[in-house]
Design goal:
Radius of gyration: 17 Å
Strand content: 15-25%
Distance between the termini: 22 Å
Largest sheet: 6 strands, parallel
Shape: globular
Strand order of the largest sheet: 2-1-3-4-5-6
Helix content: 40-55%
Structural class: alpha/beta
């Protein structure tokens, strides 16, 4: 059987499950567009987000990875070689969490988040930013952040700190507020095999796909692992 390296990619936030397949295909095309190699299999994972609390879809994300690790060989008639995970925005959140659960050859998270749901949802409660479906669903279950902040933090990416990240420094204030804390906590990891950050000056939320520096870092990471 042919030995094939695989890049498994995860989409960002969507408002309706009707958009899952469209978002998965868009994410597939985005990552294929920056990948220098033409001998890798790219698999895009569509995972539910409507009527689901942020973080709960890790079950579907993990199932996809376990299928790739344990079943894909037989079903696809190949030998799976190296496995890389990559995600954008909430997809970056997913792959960062998966990185704490299962060993792969590398994880790339572009503008991963939400980093701190306590902060994110608190400023929504104060009316400082527009309300989001993510925080509204959490509030319906847990109440306000002031009442049950631990429940919000347990789902925050700051609670899962491992990985390689690409971040645009001109991203939204919500994203950037907790970025230095997240970065430091990753560097504080004592049992991480390696950590690398790429911060792109004037880069925005899609820096991985929009900048030469982001694309180069992405391909260098895959090539060196």
């Amino acid at each position: 059987m042919k030995n094939v390296d695989v890049l498994m990619v995860f989409q960002g936030t969507i408002s309706s499950n009707r958009d899952m397949l469209t978002a998965a295909n868009t994410t597939l095309d985005k990552f294929k567009g920056i990948l220098d190699r033409n001998d890798m299999m790219v698999i895009s994972v569509a995972y539910p987000q409507e009527n689901v609390l942020l973080g709960d879809s890790i079950l579907q994300a993990e199932a996809a990875l376990l299928w790739l690790k344990n079943t894909a060989n037989q079903e696809l008639g190949i030998t799976v070689g190296k496995i890389f995970l990559a995600g954008h925005s909430q997809g970056g959140y997913m792959v960062s969490r998966l990185n704490t659960m299962h060993r792969t050859h590398g994880v790339i998270a572009n503008a991963p988040g939400p980093l701190n749901l306590v902060y994110r949802c608190q400023i929504e409660e104060r009316g400082q930013v527009q309300q989001s479906a993510v925080c509204t669903k959490l509030k319906n279950v847990y109440g306000l952040t002031s009442e049950n902040g631990n429940a919000y933090f347990e789902r925050s990416l700051l609670n899962f700190t491992n990985g390689f990240n690409v971040q645009g420094l001109n991203d939204s204030p919500i994203q950037m507020y907790s970025w230095p804390i997240f970065k430091q906590e990753v560097f504080n990891c004592t049992d991480c095999q390696s950590r690398q950050f790429v911060e792109i000056l004037a880069g925005e939320h899609g820096s991985l796909f929009d900048s030469v520096q982001g694309k180069s870092a992405f391909n260098s990471f895959i090539g060196s692992h």
